[in-house]
């Protein structure tokens, strides 16, 4: 008997089909008591519509559905195919607060290219998390723009090359502090909003490191479009719970230069400033996504994302039918 929940069925053309072998057609279903209800995704709509058979019955199986396809579905199965079942980790309309996942889109419910391992290409899903946090998102982007302006001022004096990466100064220190203060603010918010609370509201990197897996922070890398000679930054790649501060050197140096400027100013380098800004930007990606018009309008000219998480269909958020439902992320101790 099939477990209740949300399922995505991929109708994948037979590998021997020279025309269709790179294409898939995906269908979304809700399962209850071993019966299926199709969740129809209309073009341009960010919610799904439950659909039964014309007589009001539910479908017995995906095969039953394909044999009795409703009129809303424009799908001709005049080729050999296989069916791949994906059990979603989420129910209809559920999402983790300030934790990004792609959202199943109407674009998935049409023929689309798939990668070799079956994962749909990026235009098969939406980034719609921004609609729930628009003002918050814009506020963080404005702050990032201000920090990038400060960085440009530095580069009017110091050439952004690898040879100068250890150059340091007060403006670079300020950039590090501003970036990491924003990171502190966002990480506090994410933990709190997902029900993770600590005594006296004093969060530290021992708590923040729990976000590494939830946000998949270590799977992101980027470079600066205008300063690509400075290399690729992966600011969370070595973050670990055994050394939650020291394993992210940019944050460790933030603490040093914040509390003792005179002694530690030499650590406030160009390289650390760029790593801190990278960490800020990646924390935004991991909350709101990157394939949205707000990011493209404000930030795409500054950053090139060289690596990002690989999302399985099971990870995708499911569009709502009536309302969105926030749930807490299950942080592990």
What does this protein look like?
There is one protein chain. Helix 2 (134-155) runs antiparallel to helix 3 and helix 6 packs across helix 8 (270-288). Strands 1, 2, 3, 4, 5 and 8 form a 6-stranded antiparallel β-sheet that branches. Strands 6-12 form a two-stranded parallel ribbon. The chain has 2 domains: 5-119, no CATH class; 131-309, no CATH class. It contains 9 helices and 12 strands. It is an alpha+beta fold.
What labels would you give this structure?
single chain, 333 residues, alpha+beta, 2 domains, 9 helices, 30% helix
Report the order of strands and helices: EEEEHEEEEEHHHHEHHHHEE
Average of per-residue pLDDT values: 88
Biggest sheet, open or closed, and with what strands and sense? 6 strands, antiparallel
- State the total count of DSSP E strands: 12
Portion in strands: 15-25%
Cα Rg: 23 Å
Number of helical stretches of at least 4 residues: 9
Question: In a few lines, what is going on in this structure?
Answer:
The chain is of the alpha+beta class.
Give the topology.
Blueprint: E1 5-13, E2 23-32, E3 35-40, E4 49-51, H1 62-67, E5 81-87, E6 94-96, E7 103-104, E8 112-113, E9 125-126, H2 134-155, H3 170-193, H4 205-208, H5 211-215, E10 221-224, H6 249-259, H7 261-264, H8 270-288, H9 293-298, E11 303-307, E12 325-327
Parallel strand pairs: 6-12
Antiparallel strand pairs: 1-2, 1-5, 2-3, 2-8, 3-4, 7-9, 10-11
